[in-house]
Amino acid sequence: LCPIMAAKVANVGKALMSHTPAEAHAAVLKLYRAWYREVPSILEKFRLDVTVPQARQQLRKQFLRNKDVKDVRTIDMLVIKGRLDLEETSKIWKQRTHVMRFFDEFNQPQNKDFMTRFLNGSD
Predict the structure, then answer these.
(1) How many other CB atoms sit within 10 Å of the CB of residue 31?
(2) How far does the chain reach from its first CA to its final CA, in angstroms?
(3) Are 48 and 100 in contact (CB under 8 A)?
(4) What are the residues whose beta carbons fall under 8 Å from the beta carbon of 122, sequence distance 6 or more?
(5) Within 10 Å of residue 99's Cβ, how many Cβ atoms?
(6) CB–CB of 93/39 below 8 Å?
(7) Burial (0-12, 13-18, 19+ Cβ within 10 Å), 14
(8) What global pTM score does this model have?
(9) Cβ burial 67-76 (10 Å sphere, 16+ → b, else e)
(10) Distances, alpha carbon 22 to alpha carbons 60, 68, 75, 101, in Å
């Protein structure tokens, strides 16, 4: 390989932001705190019929969905996506329906039988 190609190949596996799992964990906690603080204003801006404790509970569930992720680069990618999502939500770049979808995702029970899924258009 030529030196230029070797340098490009070496940069592929580079960490996005964090170099250690502790740094990644700190970034996740910082993002969680930012979302946690922003919840009341998001509910007010979008005029949602959800209480602050319910919204914070859904936020916690969302973060806990990814609790088993151990790869630092994957954690960094999720943190970046979370920051972008927070910015889009707080600056009202999202529509009300996009924010409500966050709550509907957790509240709807999963239908197991084929006919119900078929009639709902899920299958």
Answers:
(1) 19
(2) 49
(3) yes
(4) 111
(5) 19
(6) no
(7) exposed
(8) 0.73
(9) eeeeebeebb
(10) 20, 15, 11, 32
Does residue 39 contact residue 55 with C-beta atoms inside 8 Å?
A: yes
What pLDDT score was predicted for residue 11? 52
* pLDDT tens digit sequence for 14-60: 556 889 999 999 999 999 999 999 999 999 999 988 899 999 999 99
Please say whether the dihedral angle defined by the alpha carbons of residues 33, 78, 66 and 52, taken in this order, is positive or negative: positive
pLDDT of 105 reads 60
Q: Measure the CA–CA gap between 22 and 33, rounded to whole angstroms.
A: 17
As a whole number of angstroms, the distance between CA 31 and CA 47 comes to 23
Q: How many residues does the chain have?
A: 123
14 and 26 Cβ atoms separated by less than 8 Å: no
One-letter amino acid for residue 67 of the chain: K
